[in-house]
Specification:
Elements (H helix, E strand, L loop, with lengths): L1 H11 L1 H5 L11 E6 L20 H4 L4 H4 L3 H11 L32 H11 L1 E8 L3 H6 L8 H18 L3 E3 L3 H9 L3 E7 L24 H13 L2 E4 L19 H9 L5 E5 H4 L14 H10 L21 E5 L5 H13 L2 E2 L6 H14 L22 H10 L3 E4 L4 H15 L4 E4 L26 E3 L2 E3 L1 H4 L7 H10 L4 H7 L2 H15 L6
Helix pairs in contact: 6-19, 9-21, 10-14, 15-16, 17-19
């Protein structure tokens, strides 16, 4: 009873709690709620190529050492790099001519060189950047990489690597509090917020390759709390409880059949889906046996890449589902007891929590927990579910709850400008044209926007093309080849139909994000078990 009285009292006091601090001018500019500037320190360090700073001839030089010398890794890299464009070929050259990369379709080469980040900030209005540690043990192991593979060490390396990148700059500063954000942005700098999008924080898993590190697949609440305290002390403020695998906290959203392999590698078992009506849920995705679509080359190399009981080419390792027409698959796993404890403690610490990648069942419970505590949570790089989507897409009810909480929506970047603007229109109507940003997912194995042939961006002496060494990029021909072309992309949105009011909302997202964080700080003291 006292809990509900407290909630009612706080709701009445809500406007005062959430009000902007007096005499503080609102922040301008936008937020990138989701990017990965240190992918070079993940996946065993030899699959993703290129550092974001340093001697550019070394940092972005030839990728031959990483992508050619090991035949298994070379084949995996080739298969990965041609997923988004079958005609794309890696020249391996890099600096100074950048003949084939960075490219919108290349996901294994650095796209966040420090000068490109600076251009996004100074030319495009990027004022807050959520920089996330990310990796995948299975991919690094399959690529026969020699660097760290376990999630804990990779995360520590990535967080330190982001700190080193920021320290190397004159225009970035790490923000540990919303007050830091206001000070940093007001000074003309880019505020960087450290975050984690790891599959298993704390090495709370047991991988199939028996990689030598300290793993604990059954942590206690005390061990989970200690890990979260450690991350907080490291300066990490933004967190994903779940990424692409099921973990000790709950289920992942089923979005891609091939991820079933990595899930079994990490958890020992494959996904267990359930059928749901597409008409009622909007979920049309159907989980396939990951052997479907494997070509002869992949089947030949697969036994060399993965343990035999994980190999998708081996008969009997994975299920063939017979799904009824008009039905899709979602994860049967929601939030676990350990997950409820972890999310509750994240709120008590004041973490900025992202519900993306959670299974539908888990996301709904976390939203209920957030509503019970009036604590904002966010969806930083997904989009609406639509009529033919997967459970990773947001529902109308979930958007309404995010809006009620004061959470942020960072839309994925879209296939091109017209595609992004179309999605922005849709979600802006749901959200009331507020609390909307972007989650670019640069460096996260995600292809970037292609050129939009329906529009043409004009360059002139007030806005010139991005130039590095011997290469000049033009969004009209190159699409968004790297992070430095976000200013060009944003300018192209008005050509694709974004309204003035929508653009004003987007360019106010730095203020709205900071207000969301301030509410997290104020509400954490009132979070109940």
């Amino acid at each position: 009873m006292y809990r509900y009285l407290l909630i009612i009292c706080l709701a009445i006091a809500g406007p005062a709690l959430n009000a902007q601090q007096p005499n503080t001018p609102p922040l301008t500019g936008y937020v990138d709620m989701h990017c990965h500037p240190r992918g070079d320190l993940a996946y065993g360090t030899q699959l993703f190529y290129g550092a974001p700073y340093g001697d550019i001839s070394v940092a972005l030089g030839s990728c031959k050492a990483d992508h050619s010398k090991n035949i298994l890794r070379a084949q995996l890299a080739k298969q990965t790099e041609t997923l988004n464009s079958a005609t794309w070929k890696d020249s391996k050259e890099g600096y100074p001519n950048f003949v084939t990369w960075p490219s919108w379709c290349s996901t294994l080469h650095q796209q966040m060189w420090i000068d490109w980040i600076e251009r996004a900030h100074k030319e495009g209005g990027l004022n807050i950047m959520v920089a996330l540690a990310v990796s995948n043990h299975c991919i690094g192991s399959a690529a026969k990489c020699t660097g760290p593979l376990d999630d804990e060490q990779v995360m520590l390396n990535c967080i330190q690597g982001i700190k080193d990148l920021v320290a190397h700059s004159t225009f970035m500063e790490i923000a540990l509090t919303p007050q830091d954000v206001r000070r940093i942005v007001a000074s003309g700098k880019l505020a960087v917020i450290l975050g984690s999008e790891m599959d298993n924080i704390g090495n709370f898993y047991s991988p199939a390759d028996h990689y030598k590190a300290n793993f604990n697949a059954t942590p206690s609440n005390e061990q989970v709390q200690a890990e979260l305290d450690k991350l907080w002390d490291l300066g990490l403020r933004y967190i994903f409880p779940v990424h692409l695998m099921n973990n000790v906290f709950g289920g992942t959203s089923l979005i891609m059949s091939t991820l079933n392999v990595a899930n079994k590698f990490t958890t020992g078992v494959e996904y267990v889906p359930e059928e749901v009506s597409t008409k009622e849920s909007g979920i049309a995705f159907q989980l396939e046996n990951p052997s479907v679509g494997l070509n002869a080359m992949a089947k030949m190399f697969m036994p060399l890449l993965l343990p035999k009981d994980i190999n998708p080419g081996k008969k009997g390792n994975y299920t063939f589902w017979d799904t009824l027409p008009g039905y899709g698959h979602r994860n049967t796993i929601g939030i676990t007891g350990r997950g409820k404890f972890a999310v509750n403690y994240m709120m008590k610490k004041g973490f900025i929590i992202d519900i993306d990648h959670m299974s539908e069942k888990m996301a709904n419970v976390v939203l209920d927990m957030a509503l019970a505590n009036d604590y904002p949570v966010n969806s930083g790089h997904d989009g609406p579910r639509g009529s033919a989507g997967n459970e990773g897409g947001r529902t109308l009810k979930q958007y309404a709850q995010l809006k009620q909480l004061g959470g942020m929506v960072g839309l994925g970047h879209g296939a091109n400008a017209s595609d992004f603007v179309k999605t922005y229109h849709t979600v802006a109507q749901i959200m009331g044209n507020t609390h909307m940003a972007i989650g670019t997912d640069v460096g996260g194995f995600s292809a970037l926007p292609q050129r939009d042939t329906s529009i043409h961006l004009t360059y002139d002496n007030t806005f010139t093309r991005c130039h590095t060494a011997n290469r000049t990029w033009d969004i009209n021909t190159d699409g968004v080849a790297h992070y430095g072309l976000w200013p060009d992309y944003i300018r192209s949105w008005t050509l694709a139909g974004m309204t003035t009011q929508e653009m004003q909302t987007f360019m106010s997202s730095a203020e709205q994000f900071t207000e969301m964080w301030e509410k997290c700080e104020k509400r954490k003291a009132f979070v109940t078990n």
